[in-house]
Write a structure and sequence with these properties.
The protein is of the alpha+beta class and 360 residues long. The protein folds into two domains: 50 residues, no CATH class; 298 residues, Metallo-beta-lactamase, Chain A (4-Layer Sandwich), CATH 3.60.15. 35% of the residues lie in helices and 23% in strands. The chain has twelve helices and 16 strands. The radius of gyration is 32 Å and the shape is globular.
Amino acid sequence: MVMETLQLISGLNGEIHLWRLALMIKNIRNAVLLAVGLLLVIFHLAPTYAAAPVVTTQAPGFYRMMLGDFEITALNDGVIAYDTAELLPSATPKQIEKSLHAAGLMDPVGMSYNAYLINTGKKLVLIDTGTGGKLSNSPFFAGAGRLMSNLGAAGYQPEQVDEIYITHRGQDHIGGLTIGVNRAFPNALIRAPTQEFDIFLDPGKREAALAKSNHNEKFKEWIQFTHDLFKPYIKARQFESFSGDLELTPGIRSLATYGHTPGHTSYVVESTGQTLFILGDLVLMAAMQFADPLITSAFDGDPQAASIQRQRILQLAVKNNYWLAGSHLSFPGIGHVRPAEEGYQWIPINYMVPKKAAEK
């Protein structure tokens, strides 16, 4: 059509057919307008995928690694945000500002609630049980209670757990023992440090503690809450207490780290030359307490004793290149520590697929 237009402009024998040229220009204009209109319709009808709703949920909270021949599965129960100054009152504002900036964090800082499942090949052992979704009206527990769903996502069922070892009396560590009044882990033997739970389970000591508190209502509720968690296991003869450092099952032993609470206990897992320390609450915030192990928490029953135990374990971990796993370190809470100019540097585990799974 364009070539024909040009021919008309040049004309035969110099004659220009103006009426025909005007008609063709009008046809060209109409064709262009039609094409633009069709394009607009097409773009309008095409689906806009970028407008999909925001999902906001996270991947299932489990992570696996092999420790020698043992399979270690970290299980997340939730993440609760804490104000650093309230969590670590012994830290100065300057320390908080410096450490959070170095870690790329801002207040309030999310604290993971973690538990650890150990498959030795002969036993399935769970270290702590999360909150069980209990006390959800408290800011310290609201939003937690995901351990059971993450256990299932990891490929295990609560009926498969053979033994449960408790680090200490914190509700975020023992709340998952029951569902209602029933055992959440019906086949599991519960093992817990005597110094930590006698006050709840021994009638004489329980009454003495209540009298000492002048029968404070909140203290009474806490005593009853903890007692009720262990009651169905005691009734089923699936509870044992222990004291100090001892082998609980081949490859797993208790390690007394009293201070955070009177009977706070960590666990040492060993297989074919590799060692993992499951810290419990020895370290609550990596950004602060690795750099300065002297910083204590608002939840420490005996801050000085807790600090001494933290320094002892970190020194051992550095000297022997032990793995560490922390109940409140950012999920999965597994890594190493290295000496730094100030205190220690936390090096989280590099994401990997367990060797045995990768080789299949």
